[in-house]
Amino acid sequence: MIMVQGEVGGKKYTEPFSKGVLARSLTRAEMDPNKAYTFASKIETYLKKKKIDLITIDELVEIVFNKLKEEDKEIAEKYMLWRRIREHKEPLIILIGGASGVGTSSIAFEVANRLGIRNMISTDMIREVMRKIVSRDLLPSLYESSYTAYQSLRIPPPPELDEVLIGFRDHVDTVSVGVEAVIERALREGISIVIEGVHIVPGFIREDLVNKENVAMFVLTVPDENVHKGRFYSRCRQTWARRPLKRYISYFWAIRRIHRYFEAQARKYNVPVIENIDVVTTIDSIIKSLTKTTVKGGKDVAEEIG
């Protein structure tokens, strides 16, 4: 039996080599599941041929990487990116924001799945919990959607100011309290998590939290208005969907104002802006950015492959 040796908290442990575990890690790098299992079997055969009974995780990763390079350099790169993020010693907090309809929930799900992060929460869920605690009379904007929050303003803003953005900022500022609480708990408990939603706005979450090496924020955009509008038709057509298409379309003008505000805030606070046109490209951009901002030291992956 081939045993794999690892280390957690300074203590070493051993466990049997598993083709299934290796295959799952390869699917994180977007290798076809069938090919991943076949490749894992090849690695097992190679280890047996070399009469290796005990191997460290680092040694195994090096073998896998070198064998992958021979078959598919792109998969090899993605595998190493995934490994580097997974090996980070601190919990990883990924924040994905954007206006309604740009795809934060679908991208958050895919990123969490790619990285093997089991915890994901929407800021809409955080807002819903806060609604149970705070009355409508006390915080009326909390009971509105992000793009209709301006309708709850008790004092109308001067004509020269954008009431949509004033309402939106008030709405986000309130929910950000709950978002910060989730981030603090995840950091304290050592839990990796992906938090997504319209309330993840650069400049609204405390600097001491977002400036941590293991906390990364991204803003998704859809520059083309027609493509953006089409997203609402697409996501509301499922029979199980409960989202009101007519309402989204009626307030699309307000959603686009918020979309532009997201872009401006991202530029102001140097937060990566990713055009979410193609899912695979968007996810790859986020993964690559994470390795630059959260993983320090070691050779550059491109250097290793070249």
Multimeric organization: single chain
β-strand number: 8
Poorly predicted spans: 296-306
- Summing up helix and strand content along with how strands pair, one would put the structural category as alpha/beta
Specify the overall morphology. Answer: elongated
Summarize the structure.
The protein has 13 helices and 8 strands.
Task: Record keyword descriptors for this entry.
five-stranded parallel beta sheet; alpha/beta; elongated; 54% helix
General description of the model:
The protein is of the alpha/beta class. The radius of gyration is 22 Å and the shape is elongated. Helix 1 crosses helix 2 (33-49) and helix 4 (73-86) packs across helix 12 (279-293). The longest helix is centred in the middle third of the chain and has 27 residues, at 163-189. The two termini are 34 Å apart. The strands form 2 sheets. It has a 5-stranded parallel beta sheet, with helices on both faces. Strands 2-1-3 form a 3-stranded mixed beta sheet. It is built from 13 helices and 8 strands. The chain has helices at residues 19-28, 33-49, 57-71, 73-86, 104-115, 123-133, 163-189, 207-210, 225-236, 245-250, 252-268, 279-293, 301-305; strands spanning 3-8, 11-16, 54-56, 93-97, 120-122, 193-197, 215-221, 273-275. A hairpin with a 2-residue loop joins strand 1 (3-8) and strand 2 (11-16).
